[in-house]
Design brief:
It is a single chain. This protein has about 150 residues and is of the alpha+beta class. It contains four helices and eight strands; from the N terminus they run ββαααββββαββ. A six-stranded antiparallel β-sheet has the order 4-5-6-3-7-8. A two-stranded antiparallel sheet has the order 1-2. The longest helix is centred in the first third of the chain and has 19 residues, at about 25-45. The protein is globular, with a radius of gyration of 17 Å. The two termini are about 30 Å apart.
C-alpha cells in the first residue's frame, strides 16, 4: 500500500500537499493500540494494578484476540497538531475505566475498561460532528456510523 501525495502547491516559500497513507485498521491494528494503552496503564499504575482479574478480558483480547473491542479516532486535525506523538491516560470516578489517548498522526481513543464499556453508548452523530468516528475490529475493521 504505497503512500500517495496529491494537491501539491507552492505559495511563496510555503509548500502544501495532501498525503494519503492507506492503513489496515483491522483487529490486529486495534489489538496493537490496546496493547500500547494497557502497557501505558501498567507503567502509570504499576503491575499489581493491571494484574487484577477485572482486566482478564482485556488481557485475553490483547494476547489471544478473544472478543471484540471498539475505539474512537479523529478523522481530521488542526495543522501541526499531529506532528508530535502523544501518549496519555485519563480516568474519572464516573467513567467505566481508563481511557488511553494515542496520537500517531490520527488520535486514537482506546477504551481500557474491562468490559469495553467506554464507547458503548457514544452518540455517533455527535462524534462525527466533531470529526471523530467510532471504529470496530469486527469484520476486518469498520467504522460504526450514525444511522
Amino acid at each position: 500500500m504505497p503512500v500517495r501525495v496529491t494537491d501539491f502547491k507552492i505559495e511563496g516559500r510555503i509548500a502544501s500537499m495532501k498525503v494519503h497513507q492507506p492503513t489496515r485498521m483491522n483487529k490486529r491494528f486495534v489489538r496493537a493500540l490496546h496493547k500500547i494503552g494497557f502497557e501505558l496503564l501498567c507503567l502509570n499504575r504499576g503491575a499489581e494494578f493491571v494484574l487484577h482479574e477485572k482486566f482478564d478480558p482485556l488481557r485475553s483480547y490483547i494476547l489471544r484476540g478473544q472478543g471484540s473491542r471498539d475505539m474512537v479516532l479523529t478523522t481530521s486535525a488542526k495543522a501541526g497538531s499531529w506532528e508530535q506523538p502523544l501518549l496519555q491516560l485519563r480516568s474519572d470516578p464516573t467513567w467505566p475505566g481508563w481511557l488511553a489517548i494515542i496520537r500517531l498522526a490520527a488520535t486514537f481513543y482506546i477504551d481500557l475498561s474491562p468490559g469495553n464499556e467506554y464507547f458503548a453508548k457514544a452518540n455517533l452523530a455527535e462524534l462525527e460532528a466533531n470529526n471523530m468516528v467510532k471504529w470496530s475490529d469486527k469484520d476486518g475493521g469498520k467504522p460504526i456510523r450514525a444511522p
